[in-house]
Specification:
- There is one protein chain.
- By secondary structure, this protein is α+β, with helices and mostly antiparallel strands.
- It folds into 2 domains: 35 residues, no CATH class; 83 residues, Translation Initiation Factor IF3, CATH 3.30.110.10.
- The strands form 2 sheets. A 4-stranded mixed β-sheet has the order 3-4-6-5, with helices on one face. It has a two-stranded antiparallel ribbon with strand order 1-2.
- The chain is elongated, with a radius of gyration of 26 Å.
- The mean pLDDT is 89.
Length: 134
């Protein structure tokens, strides 16, 4: 039937019982599939993650400066990955790092929700904050 119409026989679902086939112009079919995938890819939401780095003994002015940047990132719709980097022997101050991140979470709670609580991963204590949906 496909040869008579000078078209192609395309197998749509080979695992179905019986297999599903369609008589179509294959080049047009392939073009439409490609176009559909491109539209789906364009409609996907791209997640942007911005990083804020603290030291275990970050002072108040630096903390406020970085807090303002984080608020701006959250208002723009990006996730914020705040982390405390422990260098050398400063790992003994990991409780300071956790307090700092929890204080950061409290200050930023009207702009974002904590997605991941502070967790120590190697020399970093990481916390992830996602923006509040409007």
């Amino acid at each position: 039937m496909a040869k008579r119409l000078s078209l192609d026989l395309v197998e749509i679902s080979p695992k179905a019982k019986p297999p599903v086939c369609k008589v179509v112009d294959y080049s047009k079919f392939a073009y439409q599939l490609k176009k559909k995938k491109k539209i789906q890819k364009a409609n996907t939401v791209k997640t942007v993650i911005k990083e804020i780095r603290f030291g275990p003994n970050t002072e108040q002015h630096d903390f406020n400066f970085k807090l303002n940047h984080a608020i701006k990132f959250l208002q723009d719709g990006a996730k914020v990955k705040a982390y405390v980097f422990f260098k050398g022997r400063s790992i003994i101050f990991k409780d300071n790092g956790e307090k700092l991140l929890l204080k950061f979470a409290l200050e930023i709670e009207e702009y974002g929700i904590v997605e991941q609580m502070p967790a120590l991963e190697g020399k970093r204590m990481i916390m992830i904050i996602k923006p509040i949906k409007k």
